Amino acid sequence: MIPTKTTTGPILLTGATGQVGGELLNTLSPLGEVIAPLRSTLDLINLQSIRDTIRTLRPRWIVNPAAYTAVDKAETEPDLAYAINRDAVRVIGEEAATIGAGVIHFSTDYVFDGTGTKPYVETDPTNPVSVYGASKLAGEQTLAQSGAAHLIFRTSWVYGARGKNFLLTILKLAREREHLRVIGDQYGAPTWSRDLAQMTAHVIDQAEAAANGQNLTAPLVDSSGVYHISGAGETTWYGFAAEAVRQQREREPGIRFAEIEAIPATEYPLPAKRPANSRLNCTKLQQRFNWRMPNWHESLQKVLAEL
Ligand SMILES: NC(=O)C1=CN([C@@H]2O[C@H](COP(=O)(O)OP(=O)(O)OC[C@H]3O[C@@H](n4cnc5c(N)ncnc54)[C@H](OP(=O)(O)O)[C@@H]3O)[C@@H](O)[C@H]2O)C=CC1
Ligand SMILES: Cc1cn([C@H]2C[C@H](O)[C@@H](COP(=O)(O)OP(=O)(O)O[C@H]3O[C@@H](C)C(=O)[C@@H](O)[C@H]3O)O2)c(=O)[nH]c1=O
């Protein structure tokens, strides 16, 4: 399991204004004090500020959902994407290694090129086709080399009731327009931010129970590494959009929603390329931490009920 050397101290949470970070704020709180500095206090561009914060707080876990997530914009802002997605992660890893804190970091299906025909396992070769994907992969690699006990949760297609995400974009457009064209040949699994946050709290809880308050570091080596974790099931962006609109029509029978047409990715050119296959095989996390994600249809229903 993943006991950390530091058994006391708070949990330091980055990116609490984001989709996943916002949910983590709630799910991690029962595990003890959570300190979640905003960007105005801890800008991840400022590497010295990251060092100072960690040295002062001496957290037992650093949970890092903060990231540069603007996939298309990253193509023209690679330096900024790498600064947040790689350099900040390197410093988090180095400081965590020094104080013996565990690091939980989030990464993406976009580390793959999507040419594989099966759901990807953690050991499959990576080959990002976008700057965002490449910067996230660089973050994974730098954390793995830092010497810190770490878990990297590679997830996909995150959505929720708040924040910037595909679901909210589609629902907005579906109200405004008569017709929507959505890519039907990119496959993946939508993942509810809250499901991810619950999984993360479960993993921390299990790891701490296994450590049993001891300063154990050796078992860390067993569990450190990458884990795939997405909503159960699979679909395409079109399938996700169509199901969201179908469910929303049932909720709001009086409202007119756009018809949705499936199109190939070639008919929806964007600055950044996306993988055709984004499916992640989540067996490793199920086996190691005994956690299964709900099916994306079920979670979608809960999110729509919250809107
Ligand atoms: N969204 C998705 O579909 C997917 C996301 N992921 C990964 O999951 C993780 C969480 O993503 P998600 O919650 O959707 O991301 P969001 O874009 O919703 O949130 C990003 C967070 O990072 C913070 N942040 C960005 N730059 C800085 C900075 N310079 N200093 C401090 N904070 C900063 C933002 O703060 P602020 O509010 O101030 O901008 C925000 O809180 C990320 O690692 C992402 O790569 C993986 C797969 C899919
Ligand atoms: C709005 C819209 C999007 N699309 C397509 C474009 C794209 O291929 C796909 C998703 O579009 P978005 O730009 O919302 O999503 P995108 O920014 O590609 O989402 C990604 O974000 C990063 C952070 C990740 O890590 C990934 O897992 C993934 O979730 O849907 C349509 O086909 N029609 C539409 O009307």
UniProtKB/TrEMBL annotation:
Classification via CDD domains: dTDP_HR_like_SDR_e
Annotated GO CC locations: cytosol
Top enzyme class: oxidoreductase
Keywords: NADP, Oxidoreductase
Catalytic activity: dTDP-beta-L-rhamnose + NADP(+) = dTDP-4-dehydro-beta-L-rhamnose + NADPH + H(+)
Superkingdom, taxonomy of origin: Bacteria
Full protein name: dTDP-4-dehydrorhamnose reductase
